[in-house]
Structures are given as structure tokens and as C-alpha cells.
DUF5998 family protein
Amino acid sequence: MTYSAPDGSRLIQDIGTAGFYPQLVEDVVKDSLDGRQPVSHLVQLETHFNNTELHRHITVLVLAEDVLHITHVDDQQFDDSGRDVVARVSTETVGISQIRSVTLSYAYHQPQNYRPDTPIMELTLAVSWTGTQQLELYPAMCEDPECQADHGYTGTAASEDVVMRISSEADGKDAVEGAREFARTLRRANLAPVTDSGAQIAQSPHQRPLTDRRPSEAPVQRPRFGHRFTGRDSGRKSQ
């Protein structure tokens, strides 16, 4: 769920494990990478229920060299039998240098018993690059239980373009740790020095920096591999 194999096989494996139209998702991600080498990735499948329908949503984040790729795929049923289904796909490519912030929020169960090896109960990753304000509003209340006055609305505002929530209960401890490691890799890439061409290049800790190559080594050819908005909470509005 974190570092990709040199041929992208780990990324393909995680997409396949999610089991949500894997061939479709693989092809969309492959097309968006456009030959770039994946360094780290994060895959999350979400399932939403209402009274009569089931909706699934997969988010794939791929850190590849000097860019971050974001892929979202939803499905929608048009009949009760579930035979008439459409998949809606959206992709976005963001330069690492454009990322404004990488925010991690943790939750620990029973913090009074915390130890260094205590697992994280829930993790929220928020990445911002456009400065879009996400507003979560709800009616304001006063302390008087008998008050009938209209106090308007209150809420919170945060800059976030993509938000992923991963919990150990729903997704497993490995998924939480994988998300944290992806966030660390993305943060390191975002703070990396800019090259002469003006690009910031993300590299996995398992890879040697390009400047460390011996003169006799040939450049590495970038291979082409083949074959948890989220931020959609109710009451959220963008401005």
C-alpha cells in the first residue's frame, strides 16, 4: 500500500485487492501516469449505503517522480437489479511543487494507556494544492434550551483538495500504517530541493538518488506497467 515495485506491480496488486473494477482502474491509472515511475501510492475503497442503494468509491493516490496523480472512480446503479451500472471516473495530476500542505490527523484509543507501540485507531490525510475552502456548516445553538431564536449557522473551514480517512477497525492496522508512510513520503517530496529544471523529484527510500549514480551507469528507463471526498461528507460546500 505504500512503496511501489519498480515495475508498478505492487500498485497493480493493491488495486486488484480492492476488487473494484480492477482492470478499469488499472488502465485509468496507467494512462494518467503517462510512463512516470510510481514511487509511493495509496489505495482506498469505500462503500456507502442508503435505504435502497449501495454505492462504492475508490481513490488512488500515486506519487510518481515530480507529480501526484489522483484517481476517483464511482459506480451508480440505474435499476433495482443492479444490472444497469455506470462507472464515473475523474483524474487529476498535480505537480509536487504546487502542493501547499500535507496534513495528518491521528486518533488513539484510551490515550491514558499510550505506549510507543500503541497502534493508531484512525488516521485522516488531507492534501491541499488549490486553497479551496471546504465548509462544514450546521445550525448554531445557544445555551438556553427554551430559546426559539434563529442563531444562524456555525461550522469549520479547512483547505483540502483530497481527504482520506483510514481506520484500523474498518481497513486494518497495516492500511493505517501504509497511509502514514505514504503521507511521509509525499511530505518529504514536497519539501525536497528543486532541480535545475525547476522540478521536485520524489524518490523512495529504497532507491538511490540520481546524483549518486556512478558515471558508468546508464540512465534508468522509465517502465510502463500494464496488462477512503473522499471529502463528500454531508453538509460540505466548496467556495
